[in-house]
Amino acid sequence: MEYWAVVWGTIIMGATGLMIWMKMEVTRFLPRWAVDVATTIHYYEAILACLLFWCGIFIMSFFDPDVYPLNRAVLDGRVSREWLEEEHPLDPALAGGEPPPASPRAAPAHLGKSDDNIKQTGTL
After folding, report:
1. Engineered SS bond to 111: which of 21, 107, 117, 119, CB 3.0-4.6 Å?
2. What is the DSSP letter of 63?
């Protein structure tokens, strides 16, 4: 549902934002109240997006019961080996093997070099 909310929200924000931005062109084809409705919809969709950020991302990053008081990965992107073993047991970095070859749509190459980082620091 959250995936579709992002897609739907992007379409709504884009369409209403363009209507607000180009109100003179829009009012050539639609009545003025259509721009007013677009402004209201845009406003409330922005509030929904901010609430999603606050509740879904901010609170779960900082107040997740498993990592309270703070998931330190938000600061430097590193996690402990214990966390990695618990959350991602099939990660090739844990087996000591090489990560699978990168496809053209895969993550950047520097992200696949976590084996050396784990061996040296014990964290990703």
Report:
1. 107
2. S
Q: Minimal CA–CA distance to 62: which of 51, 70, 72?
A: 70
Closest CA to 114 of 96, 89, 87, 90: 96
**Residues 41, 15 share a domain:** yes
pTM for the model? 0.52
Domain extent at residue 8 = 2-62
Residues 13, 58: one domain? Answer: yes
Of 40, 3, 33, 39, give the one whose Cα is nearest residue 18. 39
* Structure token digits, residue 33: 């109240």
Q: How many CB atoms lie within 10 A of CB 52?
A: 15
Helix (H, G, I), strand (E, B) or coil at 88: coil
Residue 108 has pLDDT above 70, yes or no: no
Beta bridge partners of 80: 123
